[in-house]
Amino acid sequence: MTWDKDDNPSLINFASEFAENWPGDLQGVHMHRNGNAESIVRPIKQVTPDTPVSQIVKYFTEFEYETGVAVVSDRKPVGLVMREKLFQRLAFKYGYALFWNRAISNVMDEEPLIVELTTPLDAVSKMAMERHRDKVYDLVIVTQRSEIKGALTIRDVLNIITEMQMELAREANPLTGLPGNRRIEGEIQRRINLSRPFAVIYADLDGFKWFNDEYGFLNGDMVLRFTAAMLRETLGKAGDREGFIGHIGGDDFLLVTDTVYTWDLTQTVIQRFDREVSRFYPDLPKRTDLKREESLDRRGVPVSRQGISISLSVLECRVTSSNNLSFEVISRYAGELKKTAKRTSGSTAVWQVLNDTGLENSVRALSHDDK
Questions:
Q1: H or E segment at 209?
Q2: Which site among 115, 195, 307, 355 is 20 to 30 Å from 55 CA-CA?
Q3: Are 214 and 207 in contact (CB under 8 A)?
Q4: Is the Cα dihedral 133, 135, 138, 140 positive or negative?
Q5: Rounded CA gap, 243 and 240, in Å?
Q6: Where does a domain end: 160, 192, 211?
């Protein structure tokens, strides 16, 4: 699918709504398929602020498909000139006489949208659509450490985001709409390649099999959708623009976030889950018709009938070299940490740090009663 402002007069409305709700009902989910500005950046003509307007007009006349020129000083962008706007300005009475020999700095946009090369495309789209209506179709200048690298067209941004959304829909869990295992693995590998600290949070529900047995799978599905929405919303409100949440399957979820968010995030998840999940069984204290006082978990081990709780296993990855880390290593350590979390009754979070020398010996724990 492609979007063009001439063929689609409602593009502004579509794009604004798209950016505001991206990705659909999956707020707090970040998409990656090289999904940042670097993946679609294009070269752009660069001129200095003292370049005469006449030279820019000649450039646009010679290269009729070029839509914009970046004004640059010491490799840093200081302005943007869009073809259509320049010609509109010159078309006014005395426009050519006034500006023809003047510096382009007199007519350039001094506040173009500038993003870093690593900026996620969903964030670029949102920022672009929040501009004044007159600037919606302007190029977006891309920099790397403040030096210009090129530009993005809004058409390219919306095309790739649309493709990514369609890809997500194909691979998403049909119940929660969250990315599945392939995208989970891809996101963890992406974080490893960045060689920056990050945290993997394994979330699963305790007592979910009991709930399914006693209240039925339809109500069980409602609990899973609630959990997905709660995790998604909490991650989104934490402030991590690159936070990721996936659905491994069943009652198992996985979040990937920056390590600075893990403490507040785990606290909020436990508090919200314990406060809100009980609405799915408000009659539990009064019921006398339950089949048994105990249910069996997936391994056949008896579990007490006390409602549903959530276990969070947090593995903080502080390995400085990507050569010392892999998806398989993280999965193994996270799996072991999950066993520790499951041994604690009630909603709890346990976390451990993985650094260049291996796992730290200490395992920290947080439960609802600790807050």
A1: helix 208-215
A2: 115
A3: no
A4: negative
A5: 5
A6: 160
| Whole-angstrom Cα Rg for the chain | 26
Residue 69 has pLDDT above 90, yes or no: yes
DSSP 107: T
3-state secondary structure 214-234: HHCHHHHHHHHHHHHHHHHHH
CA distances from residue 42 to 19, 68, 118, 137, 358 in whole angstroms, order as listed: 22, 11, 14, 15, 42
CB 179 within 8 A of CB 279: no
pLDDT over 60 (residue 287): no
In a shared domain, residues 81 and 188: no
Question: Model confidence at 357, in pLDDT bands (50, 70, 90)?
Answer: confident
Are 222 and 141 in a shared domain?
Answer: no
- How many domains does one find in the chain? 2
Cβ atoms of 118 and 38 closer than 8 Å = yes
Domain-terminating residue out of 134, 160, 186:
160
As given in the structure block, the two tokens for residue 247 are: 């659905």
Q: Do 54 and 136 fall within a single domain?
A: yes
Structural tokens at position 40: 């679609």
How many CB atoms sit inside 10 A of residue 118's CB? Answer: 12
Question: Domain for residue 6, yes or no?
Answer: no
User: Which of the given ranges, 10-14, 59-63, 335-339, has the highest pLDDT on average?
Assistant: 59-63
**Domain interval for residue 318:** 172-370
Q: Is 136 exposed, middle or buried (0-12, 13-18, 19+ CB in 10 A)?
A: middle
pTM, two decimals, is 0.62
Question: Which one-letter amino acid corresponds to residue 203?
Answer: A
- Express each pLDDT in 181-222 by its tens digit: 989 999 999 899 888 999 999 999 999 998 998 889 999 999
Which pLDDT tens digit goes with each residue over 22-52?
Answer: 333 333 334 444 578 888 999 999 999 999 9
The span from the CA of 268 to the CA of 128, in Å, is: 32
Quickly tell me which residue has 């007069």 as its tokens: 9
The residues, any chain, with a CB within 8 Å of residue 202's CB and separated by 6 or more, are 252, 253, 254, 312, 313, 314, 315, 334, 335, 337, 338
